[in-house]
């Protein structure tokens, strides 16, 4: 199988992570920060940043390397507050340690727990040179009157040979203030899945009958499946298989961007 690192694992980690880009591999271009003015709700955004230097506890206790910036809706509306809560709840699933498998209710508590777990680790293994690392960056990818699409990249290291980095898409229903699951973006999942499998095989030069897993992929029962992360923007449908979802960590992420005009018959938005 031809290997694609696709840059998501080569984030600009200022957390002492070094990552080597394969010059022969290219990441599909993604619409970034597209916006359509909203008539229903007015959303303004600030970046809420938390760093090691900004936390008083890190002046006293050992702290992990932290660099976290995520979007926070500043509108004083019920919808804005609810989407903030949903967004933070989604991000808390990133801020976990080996001994902390249950996400906290918000980011502040998640970060406190992450720091606490690192301090416990250092007290138990003072000779260890491992430093926990957490990096999060979030941007608004797309917005209409009815939906808000956010994109997040992250890296989490809590010991071992390497950490884990990935890219996540989250779509929110602004009218009903709920998260829209990726499959709910599709009104004909079966038809789109068949199309996506054809494009997947074409990308990796695999015939219609050729085994996926014998070519290095990880699909359960050797059956193609759609990824956990999909997003609709103004002109495109994006989908991304993060490391371990369809291929090895070394293969990085596998990303597709389909022109909306080619797939709009199967979309709900």
Automatic annotation (TrEMBL):
Superkingdom classification of source: Bacteria
InterPro entries to which the protein is assigned, alphabetical: DUF3298 (IPR021729), PdaC (IPR025303), PdaC/RsiV-like_sf (IPR037126)
Residue ranges of every copy of the DUF3298 domain listed in the record: 188-260
Domain Deacetylase PdaC, chain residue ranges per copy: 61-163
Leader peptide range in chain numbering: none
Pfam assignment, any one: PdaC
Name under which the protein is recorded: DUF4163 domain-containing protein
Taxonomic classification: Bacteria, Pseudomonadati, Bacteroidota, Flavobacteriia, Flavobacteriales
């Amino acid at each position: 199988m031809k290997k694609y690192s696709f840059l998501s694992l080569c984030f600009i980690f200022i957390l002492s992570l070094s990552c080597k880009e394969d010059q022969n591999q290219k990441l599909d271009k993604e619409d970034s920060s597209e916006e359509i003015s909203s008539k229903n709700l007015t959303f303004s955004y600030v970046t809420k940043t938390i760093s090691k230097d900004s936390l008083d506890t890190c002046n006293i206790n050992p702290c992990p390397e932290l660099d976290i910036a995520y979007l926070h809706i500043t509108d004083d509306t019920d919808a804005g507050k609810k989407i903030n809560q949903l967004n933070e709840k989604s991000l808390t699933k990133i801020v976990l340690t080996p001994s902390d498998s249950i996400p906290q209710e918000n980011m502040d508590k998640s970060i406190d727990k992450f720091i606490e777990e690192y301090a416990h680790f250092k007290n138990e293994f003072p000779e260890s040179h491992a430093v926990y690392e957490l990096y999060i960056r979030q941007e608004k990818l797309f917005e209409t009157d009815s939906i808000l699409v956010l994109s997040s990249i992250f890296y989490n290291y809590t010991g071992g040979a390497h950490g884990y980095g990935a890219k996540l898409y989250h779509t929110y229903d602004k009218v009903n203030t709920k998260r829209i699951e990726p499959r709910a973006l599709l009104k004909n999942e079966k038809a789109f899945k068949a199309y996506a499998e054809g494009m997947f095989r074409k990308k990796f030069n695999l015939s219609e009958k050729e085994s996926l897993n014998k070519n290095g992929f990880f699909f359960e029962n050797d059956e193609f499946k759609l990824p956990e992360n999909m997003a609709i923007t103004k002109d495109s449908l994006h989908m991304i298989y993060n490391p371990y979802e369809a291929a090895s960590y070394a293969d990085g992420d596998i990303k597709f961007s389909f022109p909306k005009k080619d797939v709009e018959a199967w979309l709900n938005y």
